[in-house]
Fold this sequence. Notes:
The complex is a heterodimer. By secondary structure, chain A is of the alpha+beta class. Chain A contains 4 helices and 8 strands. Chain A has a 4-stranded mixed beta sheet, with no helix packed on it. Chain A has a 4-stranded antiparallel beta sheet with strand order 4-3-6-7, with no helix packed on it. The longest helix of chain A has 26 residues, at 4-29. Mean pLDDT of chain A is 87; it is low at 221-240. By secondary structure, chain B is mainly α. Chain B has helices at 2-14, 19-47, 50-68, and strands spanning 96-97, 100-101. The longest helix of chain B has 29 residues, at 19-47.
Amino acid sequence: MHSTINRAQNVFGFFTTVCFVVAAIIAASDYASPRTPKATLTVKDVQVVRGRPHYYSTKKEEYANIRFSLSADLSTLFTWNTKQLFVWVSASWPDPNAENKTALVNEAVIWDSIITSPSADHLSNIGPAAKKKLIRSAKGKSVDPSRGKLELKNQKPKYQITSPKGIVANTENVVLKLHYNVQPWVGPLTWTPQIEFLKWKKVKGGVSKAFNLPAIKAKEDKKKATPKANGGATGGKKVA
Amino acid sequence: MADQLLEYVREAAEGQIDFEGQRLAEFLATVLLSVVGAVSFLYGYFLQDIKLALFIGLGGTALTLLLIVPPWPFFNRHPVKWLSEGGDRAGTHGITVDGKVVG
Lengths: 240, 103
């Protein structure tokens, strides 16, 4: 500590140590707050249509468009250390030709969303007007658990799904599942728990009833279909 | 002239402090930064606000740097007592070793 530079180096060195220890304590404090997520997933409408993966593709594939309703309470996942929450709904189904007829070997994501905590609103990837509205919605609160309450009714899926073979029509025993990933400010990433640990519980519900994917919509039906159904069938990435 | 100016700048940049001052500086650095860390966590945890914890931590560290890095006068309150000039001649300081006058 004999010179100015020496003192600066020593103080900075201890500062980084203090930073690390405080961050570790903050991350550990997350395990002290309970997590009790609940969710109800219901399938509203399913359609299977033929389409191409992109405009210039010669390959034709079948795509399933699964509309669903989700009612979830993920508010306990938001603590002072939560930066954002990533939630997604996936459709999974077993392979009927496999030995194990119940193992859900196929899984495809149909919808996802990033939910930021008020402390991270300024980092969200949305336009300036929407961002201002989002920041104002938190009204100076540092934690807003209500962000974790989701009420989606007859939600259009973000992604139409297919299987590697390109065939999904008439698939049986499909279930929708809710998953989440909590991204903290400091600490490890954590996902939907498979086992209960201390005060962190598994998602209550979060799995829909099993349903089947129908056959491909015949062409005559398509002409008679209501504009709303058509909008659902042709909206999205694929081209019919 | 330029040499003397450079010497002056060099001394100012070095910011030397005496040994008691160094001990105090080390002690203050450890205590202040630990307190800053504890305070920032406690405030953040009980107010559930991570941005506040971060600002308290950074602010406290800036204050600590301001208090310890510059060579303040209170770090120089116990200057080293060097021996006076003429130390090579025996008998000028009254130092005896085993009964023999050496310095």
